[in-house]
Write a structure and sequence with these properties.
Layout lengths: L15 E5 L4 H12 L3 E6 L2 H8 L8 E4 L5 H8 L4 E4 L11 H21 L4 E5 L25 H18 L4 E4 L3
Helix pairs in contact: 3-4, 4-5
């Protein structure tokens, strides 16, 4: 694991923050709040057209962006370059059984590349947006961030469990990664 680097703040003293998943609910609101707070926000987007369509009405379509996919190493590396912080909110959300393998692969690989890449680069402010579905266990009424991971075997839930297992491994080795569980 790389040593934590000194933050390369922008001239205004704010951070350069990579946000994935900005065309989704959590990623959009995260990018908006960070931008309004004066941080330099960079997005990793698959479709610049969709980014403009979703973010344009809010004046966020001019944010810096890298076109690519969370499961593509080169585009993730370009997006991480020069960043001080990362919020990884992107995920393939699909509940169809026929797409389970692709969902698991995309979300797990995306987490490995985005979160693992940030850790490898010494970025010290990292947030992974998981899902409460990763903590779901039959018969359990209340969960929190310390709950054991769920037992779902397929699809989106499984992809979030596998991503969380990866992140928890990084945390156990001292990585400064925080996980949030909306849902």
């Amino acid at each position: 694991m790389a040593q934590a680097k000194r933050n390369r703040r922008t001239r205004s003293g704010n951070l350069r923050v990579l946000v994935t998943g900005a065309t989704g609910f959590v990623g959009f609101h995260t990018a908006k709040v960070l931008h309004e707070a004066g941080h330099e926000v960079r997005l990793l987007v698959r479709s610049p057209d969709k980014m403009r369509r979703v973010l344009g009405p809010f004046g966020l379509d001019t944010l810096a962006h890298v076109q690519g996919d969370i499961a593509e190493e080169k585009s993730v590396a370009r997006a991480l370059e020069g960043c001080d912080a990362v919020v990884h909110a992107a995920a393939m959300v699909n509940v169809h059984a026929k797409d389970a393998i692709a969902t698991i692969h995309t979300n797990r690989r995306g987490t490995e590349l985005v979160i693992g890449g940030a850790v490898d680069r010494g970025i010290s402010r990292i947030v992974q947006v998981s899902s409460s579905t990763a903590l779901f266990n039959p018969g359990v009424e209340t969960v929190d961030e310390n709950s054991p991971l769920g037992t779902q075997a397929v699809g989106y839930g499984r992809s979030k469990i596998e991503s969380d297992l990866y992140v928890r491994g990084l945390q156990a080795r001292g990585a400064n990664v925080y996980t949030t569980y909306p849902g």
